[in-house]
């Protein structure tokens, strides 16, 4: 009985050792960038310096490893990364005896998806990415909010039409700092905003006059300075995220105002009509946008002209106008407002 128990303990220990030697999964994000998925338990990930057996035989025992620039005690062609919870990520380099760089690998740690996200902040709508498009030309913008204690940077961007996932080839064009993803049906290019809080993308093969039959699928990998990486995804049609720019509004005379389509909106306007919402205000505030505190009272739809004239009431002190796609339940533009400059009449004027 004691012998059986001893055998069970040995077998159990061996299984645990083998299981913990490797993480759940590892894969290449970009050349020399390895993502290691962890679940919080102890694990190991082996890195190799040289692929050529001839080079290994020549230099193997003299290869020196560094982690984040600091010399490690491990030597030889293989290096074992110790994984413990979310630790183990870093920039690993291997060098010859004279200090020459032979190879390098950045190890990024991706925690189990069931664990609480730490890098980006969830929006009030329960999402992490907020996307919008000015028009139907194929360009869109997505933004996010970094967690105050986990500010990071973009590590990888992948954008494709959802039916092309298995055919998508993505790479980073370092000359112009653009991420590119190509398939047979779409060709996306993306760039990171200077602020680091968003990206701008364009489907260079998109035709605004054709029906959009396939959704855009977007995945953004972001990483921290501590080599943690997370992915955030979103899919949509352009018609779901389109948000026109502000309309242009001006005063014609004391009883008439005029507005026109945003210059960034697609033409002809008969094919891309907007619905306009107009609000006339009797009272306002000097230092705020009066449109934000009131509700619209009238809708006005225009199909074929880029200029619209609208009579205003004598008592109105300001006019607010905003627009949205006439055919889709998409976002309204921001309000444009025009103060009419009508002050209160003097007592003598009211009596006349």
Automatic annotation (TrEMBL):
It comes from the Eukaryota. Residues 31-107 form the Ig-like domain. SUPFAM superfamilies: Fibronectin type III (SSF49265). One of its GO terms (cellular component) is extracellular space. It is found in: Secreted. The keyword Glycoprotein applies. Its main location: secreted. Keywords: Cytokine, Disulfide bond, Glycoprotein, Immunoglobulin domain, Secreted, Signal. Gene3D superfamilies: Immunoglobulins. Residues 1-20 form the signal peptide. The keyword Magnesium does not apply. GO terms for molecular function: cytokine activity; cytokine receptor activity. It holds the Pfam family IL12p40_C. Belongs to the IL-12B family. Heterodimer with IL12A; disulfide-linked. The heterodimer is known as interleukin IL-12. This is Interleukin-12 subunit beta. It comes from Echeneis naucrates. The gene is il12ba.
């Amino acid at each position: 009985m004691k012998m059986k128990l001893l055998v069970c303990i040995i077998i159990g220990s061996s299984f645990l050792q083998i299981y913990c030697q490797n993480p759940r999964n590892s894969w290449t994000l970009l050349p020399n960038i390895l993502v290691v998925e962890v679940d919080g338990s102890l694990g190991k990930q082996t890195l190799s310096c040289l692929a050529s057996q001839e080079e290994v035989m020549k230099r193997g025992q003299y290869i020196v490893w560094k982690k984040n620039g600091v010399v490690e005690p491990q030597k030889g062609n293989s290096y074992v990364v110790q994984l413990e919870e979310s630790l183990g990520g870093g920039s690993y380099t291997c060098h010859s005896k004279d200090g020459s760089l032979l190879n390098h690998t950045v190890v990024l740690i991706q925690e189990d998806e069931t664990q609480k996200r730490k890098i980006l902040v969830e929006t009030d709508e329960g999402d992490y990415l907020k996307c919008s498009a000015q028009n139907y030309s194929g360009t869109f913008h997505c933004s996010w909010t970094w967690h105050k204690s986990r500010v990071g940077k973009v590590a990888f961007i992948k954008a494709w039409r959802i039916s092309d996932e298995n055919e998508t080839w993505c790479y980073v064009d370092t000359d112009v700092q653009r991420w590119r993803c190509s398939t047979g049906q779409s060709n996306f290019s993306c760039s990171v905003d200077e602020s680091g809080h968003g990206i701008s993308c364009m489907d260079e093969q998109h035709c605004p006059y054709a029906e959009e039959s396939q959704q855009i699928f977007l995945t953004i990998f972001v990483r921290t300075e501590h080599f943690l990486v997370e992915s955030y995804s979103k899919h949509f049609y352009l018609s779901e995220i389109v948000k026109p720019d502000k309309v242009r509004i001006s005063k014609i005379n004391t009883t008439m105002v005029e507005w026109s389509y945003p210059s960034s909106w697609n033409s002809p306007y008969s094919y891309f009509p907007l619905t306009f919402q107009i609000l006339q205000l009797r009272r306002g505030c000097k230092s705020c946008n009066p449109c934000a505190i009131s509700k619209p009272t009238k809708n006005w739809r225009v199909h074929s002209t880029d200029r619209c004239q609208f009579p205003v009431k004598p008592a109105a002190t300001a006019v607010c106008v905003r627009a949205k796609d006439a055919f889709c339940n998409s976002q309204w533009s921001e309000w444009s407002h025009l103060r009419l400059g009508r002050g209160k009449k003097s007592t003598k004027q009211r009596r006349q």
